[in-house]
Write a structure and sequence with these properties.
Shape: globular
Strand order of the largest sheet: 2-1-3-4-5
Largest sheet: 5 strands, parallel
Oligomer: single chain
Number of strands: 5
Order of helices and strands: EHEHEHEHEH
Distance between the termini: 29 Å
Number of helices: 5
Radius of gyration: 15 Å
Strand content: 15-25%
Structural class: alpha/beta
Length: 141
């Protein structure tokens, strides 16, 4: 299975850094989309199948937490990982309450980011297997 990843950050160098650090082939990421604010991210989420969203917290035109709230309502299967320079417990707590898989602080080690992306892939695979089993079960009933 291949995955589609959306990277949302208002800092161009942060996006470029993550893009250059990650081995997309090894991570089985087929396509990587980038957005610099909430509106761009929402537009991509509306037209593409996104599996994993890596997102900053503080951005102009809407925070990462606002974006995650929107994603939960419109695209609940997207796995979100926050990647931010804000070591604020209040943010981390809200992110986890909204269903974020993890909350990583910049600068992040590539290996740590890859581990979290692999965890996200496991959740996606498990969810899709459960959906298939449920559909099979419904066909038998």
């Amino acid at each position: 299975m291949t995955y589609q990843l959306l990277l949302v950050d208002d800092e161009v160098h942060a996006i470029e850094g993550v893009k250059s650090d990650l081995d997309m082939d090894k991570l089985e990421v087929e396509r990587l989309f980038t957005a610099f604010n909430m509106k761009q991210a929402q537009a991509i989420l509306q037209r593409e199948r996104i599996d994993i969203m890596l997102c900053d917290i503080e951005m102009p035109q809407g925070s990462g937490l606002e974006l995650l709230t929107w994603v939960r309502n419109h695209h609940p299967s997207v796995i979100t990982i926050f990647l931010t320079s804000h070591a604020d417990f209040k943010y981390a707590k809200e992110a986890l309450q909204l269903g974020s898989l993890d909350y990583l602080l910049k600068p992040v080690l590539t290996s740590e980011l890859e581990n979290v992306i692999n965890r996200a892939k496991e959740v996606i695979d498990l969810n899709s297997e459960m959906r298939r089993n449920k559909q099979s079960h419904q066909l038998w009933m």
